[in-house]
Structure formats: structure tokens, C-alpha cells
Design a protein that fits this description.
This protein is of the alpha+beta class and 632 residues long. It is built from 23 helices and 22 strands. The strands form 2 sheets. Strands 1, 2, 3, 4, 5, 6, 7, 8, 9, 10 and 11 form an 11-stranded antiparallel sheet that branches. An 11-stranded mixed sheet has the order 13-12-22-21-20-14-19-18-15-17-16, with helices on both faces. Strand 21 and strand 22 form a beta hairpin. It starts with a helix and ends in a 6-residue tail after the last helix. The protein binds adenosine-5'-triphosphate and magnesium ion (MG). Pfam families: DUF87. It comes from Saccharolobus islandicus (strain L.S.2.15 / Lassen #1).
Length: 632
Amino acid sequence: MQYLSIFLKLVEMGLFNLKMNNKAKVETYKWYEVEPSPFQLLAQEDQDRLTNNFTQLLNSVNEAVIYVKNVFDFYEYENSQYPVIITKFYFGARENTPGFFNMRDITDPLKDRPTVTYEYPDKIVLSDGSLAKVLVTYNYPDYLPDGFLFEYYGIADEIFVKFKQVDQYKAIKMVSAARLRAESLLTGNRVTPETERKVQKLRDLSTTIGGSARLFEVYLYIVIKGKTNGELLEKEKRIKEMANARLLSIEDPKYIQRELYEFKTSVSAFTSFSIEKNFIDSISAGAFYPFISEDLIDENGVFLGKSNSNSPVVFNPYSRNNYNIVILGESGSGKSMTTKVFLRRLRKKMNIGINGIDPENEYVKDVVAKELNITQVVIKPGQKLGLDLMKFVREGFIDATDAAELIADLYYVPQELRPRLRRLFVSSDADTIFQLIDELKENKAEDLLKYLDAVESPPDSYVYDGIPIDISGNIVFGIKELRNQRLKVVVSSLLTLLLQKKMLSGRQLLFVDEAWIFSEYPAVLNLLQEVARRGRKYGDIFMYITQRPWDVYNTPEGRTILEQAATAILLRQRAAATEVLQKAYNLSQAEIDYLLSANPGQGIIRAGNHKLTLQILVTQEELEKFSTSPAI
Ligand SMILES: Nc1ncnc2c1ncn2[C@@H]1O[C@H](COP(=O)(O)OP(=O)(O)OP(=O)(O)O)[C@@H](O)[C@H]1O
Ligand SMILES: [Mg+2]
């Protein structure tokens, strides 16, 4: 009751100009739509920046309404409909463009709300046939966590927060009067802890209001809707529980449900029904920072599926600060399916070249290749590939030192021989890798030849010999038939170099599936990372898809790939991945537990500041065409 008594006192003092007419007044505001951003996942300093801006925004207007609206909708993708929730944010004020949070002018968002068709004491019936109820919170506790409103976004249909700035002079007078009055109670003989707390709060308030902070009346209304009474009661129960957990008092005021819903603010409507007024200083008001969405809905993005709050996840790699994507998950978790649907949808959305290394010959299958519109190249054992590393050096696609390191990794040249190999590479006149081997022979470099003479004989010689494959158009290389894993690595890394030529022409995507096969070859990982880094300024997208992330994470080169990708899609994991998930993606134990038992296509997407659980939704057609499991 403390604030009500303060308020009534003010009325007595004539500081508040009560409009005693009962005729409700509809407020008119200038409205802006606000683009939300993640909040809970941000570092403290970034959260502080947002709450400070919010405080400044409130200080800059006399009166403000924040309107948060959940739209329960269906996202349509290729004749399939997915139920989703989209949260929209509006800011209304009487002043012109407040100039914070990239606000966009819009028309009154309240005019499209369903109207009230029938009124019960404790609820209303709306023109869309639903039942609705307005809950009002009051009596704010001393502490509210920043961004606490977000907790209600998953359940509430609408949230209104109204801030009304109290004139500085009035505020100071009002608070000091209330403080003096409360302090006088301290001299009595029945001083309760309650009184002491109240005095302390009022003293604190005096200090802040005396400084640069302002005083606001704050009203928070939560509108819930339901098709049935049961649904309404269930929502009410959950919201009340959440409010109580934060020590917020919450009520569903009877007989004024319609006025509350229609957002008619007549002071009498509140005072006569004992809804206490709430005063909050502008610093504490920062906790009400509302423009939060942990959802990921990028402009011009590709539909991936839905988040745990049932929002669509719409992802555009170009919305991030780099275009590297890693997809991690154990066997059968849905990595390749995710890649295929992503590629398919990306191609429909934008003009981009597709290139891939396919160690399991999954993408080169007719039905997949056709669907993705790619040329499939199935590499056969004994096929001459013309992937001469020395030619790549001469053409400037890799420098001699890196090439020496690559060849050393691929042929297991011991560390102590590597400096010599590098020198030989750098000083060599050879135009082909075979000429280089001849030079080694001339130099009687027997110790190196012991490892490198394999270059000259099959199956390796086939890799280097011949003329390179034409790589124009969308192209995926299936290398499964090269049974030997080392040979797969040799071919993949050289193909990557070959593709790099094309990457420099811009807007190309390169994906590498089953990339764990490279984890023992740091020079290859380094090469992949370099290709990705160089391609960035040409708008190239690099996708690295693998199981066994811990193997990759073991080398500095692999760690760089996993940690620096702006986007990581994490699907079901084995327990061995726990450390990587904690270190590279800062996942909590709960998030890790979720990943340990996820179903195919279920996981977590980390994209820039966003991190949310994700269910990759695939259409029946995609499932049929892209599945690898014979059951379907
Ligand atoms: N989003 C999804 N929705 C429904 N089913 C899915 C989804 N993703 C994958 N699946 C099912 O799981 C199977 C395995 O998926 P996928 O081949 O993509 O796994 P993977 O992670 O690439 O496994 P591996 O590491 O063995 O290659 C698919 O054939 C499909 O039947
Ligand atoms: Mg796979």
C-alpha cells in the first residue's frame, strides 16, 4: 500500500491533477517499430549499453508506451506450414523520432487489435472469438534483473508497459514528503523491518532523483488470450508463478478488464480498484529493457526450421561478420541433411555457386545432384586428376612454404626434415611435382625421398598427373571410391586449391563434409582456413561439416576453424564433445545435456550474438530425396 498512500497524499497536496471524470480517454501516440536483438546472451557491458540507451530513451520523452505483441502464425515453406511465434516490438510516444534503437515510423499498431464483444467481470470476449484477460503487475521489488520482461514473451499474447515521467520538481517534493512521513514512523515504538526498508528505499530514491535520474510511474499490463477458459487459466497460472518468483505482485482486476484491454487510462479506473501506482526511478527502469529477441530471423534469409520458442529460424550467412559455417554432430545427427536442405534453399534465395567435397558420395547421387543442380564428379581410383601441387605454386594459389608444409603433412615427413624440405621447395625451379622429386634425387636427398618417392608411383602419381578437371559450374566431387583415407585427404586438399581459383571470382560456396578426415593434417586444416579467409572479401561461404569435433579442436588450426566461424550448427553430440562445446561455444551444462540426447535435425545454432535451440524442419519431398537411412 505504500505507493498508493504516497499518491493519495500527493492528491491531497494538490500536486496531482486528478481528472475525476469517469469517461475513459484513449491515448494517442506516435508509433515506432523497434528491431529487437539478443540480450541474455550478451556480455555484461553490452547489456549495460542497451539498458543505458533505454534509460536515456525514457528520459527523453514525457510519456512512453511499449507494446510487445506475439503473433502466432504459420510459416509457409514449399506448401508445408509450420506454427511459429513472431514477437513484434513497438514504441509509442508523444514526441517525434526518439532516435534510439533504429526505430522505424509506423502507423498505430493498436488499431488492428480485435475488439471487445462481451465483458465478464474477470475476462472479455474478443471479436476474433478468443477469450482474453489482462493481468496487471504492481508493487515492484527493490531488485529486478535486467531484461526480465523477456520471461513473459513465450506465453503472453501482448504486453504493455507504460512509463509516465513525473515532473522533476514534483518528483523531488513528492519523494521528500513521503520520506519525511515515513521517517517520522521510525521514532514510534513499533518500528517494523518493513518500515525500515521503506524508509531506506525512499532515501535512496531521494538521492537518485536529486541527481540526474527521473521518476516514472510505471504500469505493466499482460494480456493473455485463449480459445477456452482452461487455456486462459493455464496461462494465467504460469504468468502469476513467474511474477511471484520475481516478487512482483500481479492481479487480474475485476470489472475493468475491458478498459484495461482497450488501453484507456483513466486514473479513476485504477484508484477506485486499488491498483497501486508504481514509481520507479529511471535507473531502475533500465531493468524493463524490452526489445529482446533471442530469435534468429535474418532479412532475406533461408528458412531452417524453428526455435524452442516456436519462432521461425531464418538464416542469412551474409548477416554475420564472416561467412564461415561449421556443422557439428555425431553420425546420424542430421549434418548432411541440414547441409543439403540449406544448399537447396540458399540456391533458391540467392545467386551463388556451389562447390563441395563429398567423401561419402552422398551429394553426387543422381537425385541429390539433380535437386541441388550440381554437376557430380565421381572420382575413380586410377583416374588422372591433374592436381599438381607445384603448378598451383607457380600459379600463385599457394606459396612455396605452405605447399612444403602441406606435402610434408600428407607424406608424414618428420619435423626435423621439414626445414630442409621448405628450403628446397622455395629454391626449386620445378614446374611440376615430378620435377621436384627429380631435383630431390639430383640432390641425393635420400632422407626426404624415403617419404616423398610415393608421389611418383600409383595411386598418388594419378593425382598429380594429367590435366585438371573442368570446374566451371556448380560442382561436387565424390571421393568415396578412393578407399585409402590418406589419398582422400591428398585429393581433397588439392581439389580445394583448384577450387580456390574459382572462389576468387566471387559468390561461391565451398562445403567439405566428413571433414574429420583432415584432423590429423594441420597443414590441410590451415589450407581450408586460408581458403575461407581469402574468399571472405569475395563473398564466399565456407562450410565445414564434421563429426568428432574434439579431434579437430585438438590442433590450433582446427580450433581456429571451429571457434572463428560466425555460425555454428551443433547437432546431437557424443559426451567426448563436451569440452569443445564448452570452450568453443560457451554452452552451459543444460545446453550440452540437450545436445547429448537430441533427435536428428535438433540442435543449437550459434550465429553472431544469437544462440538458440533449433529444429531443422524438412519437407516431405526433401526427406525423401535427401535421406540416407533406407527406412524412408
Ligand atoms: N531435420 C531432420 N528431420 C527429420 N529427419 C532427419 C533430419 N535430419 C536428418 N534426419 C534423418 O536422419 C538421417 C541421418 O541424417 P544425416 O545423414 O544427415 O546424418 P549425418 O549427421 O550426416 O550422419 P553421418 O555423420 O553418418 O554422415 C537422415 O537420413 C534422415 O532420415
Ligand atoms: Mg553425413
